[in-house]
Amino acid sequence: MNDDLILLGHGSGGALSHRLLDDLILPVLSDRSAEQNDAALLTIGQSRLAFTTDGYVVDPPLFPGGTIGSLAVHGTVNDLAMMGARPLWLSCALIIEEGLERQLLADILADLRRAADGAGVRVVTGDTKVVPRGKADRIFITTSGVGVIEHSLAIHGGGARPGDRIILSGTLGDHGMAVMAAREGLPLDGLRSDSAPLWSLVREMLAEAGEALHLLRDPTRGGVATTLKELARQSGLLFTIDEAALAVTPQVRGLCGILGLDPLYVANEGKLLACVAPEAAEAVLARMKRHPLGERAAIIGTVDEGEAGRVRMRTVVGGMRMVEMLAGEQLPRIC
């Protein structure tokens, strides 16, 4: 590998992404130790805010279950929700390639507005640029978001504690495989992105768990496997998951089988992982299951003392294997 060049794998959310952040980006841009959470926590007087930003380059811009417009809203409000913040405001910057169809842009913007209204947020500022043909790929969107934290809890990626139960709110890999199917023109009935705003589910979890809710994270790029590895490293603990507890739809399992992909490493955009104290886990799970976005939630593992930063999986045949970060770029341009 040529270390002098930026590769697609550097945008995967996996090991190469972390190396790029640690070796180049954070040393230049960060003036303190960065926890690499989904959003920054800001204090203004007595108010606690969360602030986040993200770029979206999904190909194709329309896919089953959403568009680049709704994805930009959902991805940003979810990053705020994973810090326990109620999303309030968004900015939206459009980079449009010359030649984009006006109707396609209108459809994307309408979908973005519907998603914002559905998530209870307002788009309050933005920017638009048009670049020459061949200098972009139809349309890119960058969104930033601000949310308010209306409780005293500290929810962050390093918050897991020994004994915590690991909860996953639903099935693996729906978004990544829906985008891949649309990209390749594969007609798979029932395969749709799970892109959705998660704050309403998080609000229910906060109400049920209180201080027993220690950690939240949405498994986007790199999937559940890479996200768990990140959280284990941040928390300095050993995560153990059960393969039998992981739910995968037949459509995702079938397409992953055809393409030789592991659903553990495929992105979602409407699911979350949580670490909850053991005495509250069953009650939180029951409340999640009563919410439309948590109907297939399950306890998938535990947080243990042991090899700090490691993730292991108990397989369906009874063995144990280590789970590592996504090494390169499995599915480019899925968010």
TrEMBL record:
| A Pfam cross-reference name | AIRS_C
Q: Which residues form the PurM-like N-terminal domain?
A: 37-149
Residue ranges of every copy of the PurM-like C-terminal domain listed in the record? 161-312
Domain of life according to the entry = Bacteria
Q: Which Gene3D superfamilies match?
A: PurM-like C-terminal domain (3.90.650.10), PurM-like, N-terminal domain (3.30.1330.10)
Q: Which residues form the signal peptide?
A: none
Family to which this protein belongs: Belongs to the HypE family.
Give the protein name, as stated in the record: Carbamoyl dehydratase, hydrogenase maturation protein HypE
State the species of origin.
Answer: Trichlorobacter ammonificans
Q: Which gene encodes it?
A: hypE
